[in-house]
Amino acid sequence: MLSEIHYIPKIKQTIDWLHSLLIPHEMPVRYLSFALLAVTIWAGNTIVNKLAAGALPPGSIAFLRWLLAFATLTPFVARDAWQRRAAIRADLPKLALLGLLGMALCQGVGYYAASYTSATNMALLLSLAPLLTLLLAALFHKEVPSAIAIAGGLLSLLGIFVVLGHGDPLVLLAQGVGRGDAMMFVVVLAYAAYSVLLRNAPPSLPVFTSLYAQMACALVFLLPVYLWSATPHLTWATVSMIGYAGIPASIVAPAVWMMAIKHLGSGRTTMFMNLIPIITAVAAAAFLDEALHAYHLIGGGLTIGGVLLGQSRLKARRTAPAS
User: Fold this and answer.
1) What are the φ and ψ backbone dihedral angles of 278, each rounded to 5 degrees?
2) Could you give the angle at the alpha carbon of 188 between the alpha carbons of 183 and 191, nearest 5°?
């Protein structure tokens, strides 16, 4: 009994140390909740993508989602966008490329992928986005990744192979990657390219004005696909799907995510993206009756571990000069 009492202060010290490491005193808890809210909304959007498969033509929901988001922002942003029309016109090629990658391709292709793969696989593949962003930044911005970052990337890639190969990575060599998983890789690559190019976003435009202009460009790209698609059958269920994708996933989540980055820093906030596969897998099992297998847990653990390894090294390199 005395030995157990002797260990209580040490346990308390360990808990206090972990708390100070994860939640410093100067960090308001509400900003942590903002980051958690954003990733929860995005995980829910993966479920919506899967539910929309078969209920709505992919080209229709991709267009209507951004049309709703654009219309919702119009009363608040249109006046500023009109006043800054000269700056928007000057930077239109950059804004159009951002709209193509981050909205038309990243979101549009995802709706097609949902018809051929599971929500769990979609979320696991999305967890590769931070590492692909790191690799593209190394290619285009000459940021040489460290050996630890490369090791983290290889570990994550092994985890993805375990999931796609249903526990046996060698299966991919014989059978190849499924259509939906290949589409999701295009989605992740487009998002990574969007993240890298976002560094060069027009600095003269406020965030929501830039986002508003990107939405307008994305609608232009998605309009032919929408016109080519079958007429959507609108019901309360399908309208709810469009509403969720158009407002929480397209406006609320980016807004609270940007506030979290402002107060927590990009490195700490990005760590929350590793929760998307976990939240999605639990939600998919609950609402979509998707079975969780051992290879999901093993592959997901390897993927998230690789991302954490790469990001921890990236964070250390960024904070080294200040120290």
Assistant:
1) -70, -50
2) 125
The phi-psi region of residue 53 (left if phi > 0; otherwise alpha if psi is between -120 and 50; otherwise beta) is beta
Give the span between the Cα atoms of 46 and 119, in whole angstroms. 6
Query: Tens of pLDDT along 115-146?
Result: 888 787 787 777 777 777 777 777 776 666 66
Residue with tokens 């010290």: 13
Residue identified by tokens 């609608």 is 219
Contact 71, 260 (CB under 8 A): no
- pTM greater than the 0.90 cutoff: no
> Phi first, then psi: what are they for 101, rounded to 5°?
-75, -50
Distance separating alpha carbons of residues 3 and 6, to the nearest angstrom: 5
- Which helix (H) or strand (E) segment holds residue 5: the answer is helix 2-22
- Give tens-digit pLDDT for 232-265: 888 898 899 999 999 999 888 888 877 777 776 6
The Cα 159–Cα 143 span in angstroms is 25
Contacts of 149 (CB under 8 A, 6+ apart): 131, 134, 309, 310, 313, 314
Could you give the CA distance from residue 221 to residue 105 in angstroms, rounded to a whole number?
9
Which residues does residue 53 pair with via DSSP β-bridges, in sequence order? 56
